[in-house]
Amino acid sequence: xxxxxxxxxxxxxxxxxxxxxxxxxxxxxxxxxxxxxxxxxxxxxxxxxxxxxxxxxxxxxxxxxxxxxxxxxxxxxxxxxxxxxxxxxxxxxxxxxxxxxxxxxxxxxxxxxxxxxxxxxxxx
Length: 124
Known about the structure:
- By secondary structure, the chain is mostly beta strands.
- The protein is built from no helices and eleven strands.
- Strands 2, 4, 5, 6, 9, 10 and 11 form a seven-stranded mixed beta sheet that branches. The protein has a four-stranded antiparallel beta sheet with strand order 1-3-8-7, with no helix packed on it.
- A hairpin with a 6-residue loop joins strand 4 and strand 5.
- The radius of gyration is 13 Å and the shape is globular.
- The N and C termini lie far apart (40 Å).
């Protein structure tokens, strides 16, 4: 089992940047595929970016070219660098993990481990 804790959220003006972190603890000796999801008020949770254990990545169309997912295996930490932020990026951001090594999924039901979330607010 793995525990996930997100950090790095906050308030920023449109056009600004934030970097989210997701620290993993517990059974980090196993390889996992990871992803970031977000949920805005009144909307369904949606996938933002995913990375597998080989470092391959996948992005939602809405964030391509603006967001970058990465991981530091030595620190057991997942990152989401968010640039050129827009008001529509405002949401609670969650990291998620799954034991399948080569899972590049943005589907909620594919992930068994979730963090508590970190809030990102982008003002115009």
